[in-house]
Specification:
Length: 268
Amino acid sequence: MSVSRPARPRRRWIWAIVALATATALISPLALLVGVKPAPHREYGPVRVYDRAVTAIRVSAPGGAVAITAGRPGQVSIASTLAWLVTKPAIRERWRGTTLAVSVHCPASDLLADCSASLVVHVPHAAEVVAAVGTGNATVTGLAGPVRVTATSGSLALARLSGPLWATATSGSITGMTGLRSARLTADVGSGSLALGLDRAPRSLSLTVGSGSGHVTVPLGTRYRIDTGPGNAVHLSPGMSNQAAASLIAAEAGSGTLTIGYPGELPG
């Protein structure tokens, strides 16, 4: 005679825990990626002041906001605001002679784009400035030294500059409608936008637009030697071209549009 053994209890709770853990592991990162994030940490750093000779400053702040403007002679000041969710950004400063390099560093695996830093930098009026912001934005104002700024999908805002100027944006924007008096100016946008208003006639103006759009105004009545190259669709105000002029405009447009004219006019 056989004796039947009682059936083992089904441990359904174990499978329930496994399922819950798996769902949590999958859903939590997804929720963060679609925007269900906690509020980021924010920290205002102390203002760092260097009282020493400075001829140039180089700033690298990918994804951040940078404002560079004129300050006191022989002095550089840097104010910073840090924001992060997981890993705090680091700001590094290094002197090489009279050149100061400032860089913002975030983790290479910053998938949530939760790490950034904003900088406000004051430099001597005639100092050279080089700034790269990537997807961030840069504002440069009130300087007489050479300025070179670059962005990818970020934005560049320029005002009251009188030294040589180079500005490049890939799919971002370049804007400068106030106080641009540079004798030499180069601006290049890919699929982004360009809007410049020059207060003084440049000796050399080089403009390139890819598939984006550009509109540039020069002082009323000024004349230029024009070089647009073969097959370029660059629109100029009537009477602007004079091949005997001392100043040169070199302009190139791809599949986008570029107009160069006088204030209040619509080049065609």
